[in-house]
Amino acid sequence: MVSEKLAIVKQWFKKADSDLRTIENNIKSEAPPTDTICFHAQQAIEKYVKGALIYFGKHITKTHDLVNLLTSITKYVPELENLENEFHEISHYGVEVRYPDIFYEPSFEEAQRSYEVALKVKEIVLKKIKV
After folding, report:
1. Alpha carbon distance 21, 13 (integer Å)
2. Do 91 and 125 contact (CB within 8 A), yes or no?
3. Where residue 44 falls among pLDDT bands split at 50, 70, 90?
């Protein structure tokens, strides 16, 4: 793999790790901001998948739709396919929880589950891609 492309993949993964650290810092707080946790879980998943797509030489589009991204990545990382329901649930956190006009406050359980899925995606992707 061209070192420039690998550097870009690493940047995507570094940004995803930053999202996970944001979750880790917030989830331990006295009153965890569940919308923020869910948003960053969605973002981490999106960035790990997009980084993986770049690694496999695929063009990425500007989308927050995790199910769409899942469709693109399962050819290369089929282990993610069994997370389709979770991707569908978490996908809307990329937009809906960020704005007051579509106000939705996820429960702590939803936030915890989203975080766990993001960690699972990281684990699966990094097993497939050695960076």
Report:
1. 12
2. no
3. very high
Q: Which two tokens stand for residue 85?
A: 């329901």
On whether the 3-128 domain is CATH 1.20.120.330, my answer is yes
CA of residue 99 relative to chain centroid, distance: 19
Q: Which residue shows structure tokens 């915890």? A: 112
Express each pLDDT in 46-92 by its tens digit. Answer: 999 999 999 999 989 888 899 999 999 999 999 999 999 999 999 98
Distance CA 12, CA 48 (A): 7
For residue 123, give both structure tokens: 């684990």
User: CA–CA separation, 43 vs 91, rounded Å?
Assistant: 9
Tokens encoding 129: 């891609």
CA–CA gap between residue 78 and residue 73 (Å, rounded): 8
User: Residue 26 is encoded by which pair of tokens?
Assistant: 């917030």
Q: Is 82 helix (H, G, I), strand (E, B) or coil?
A: helix
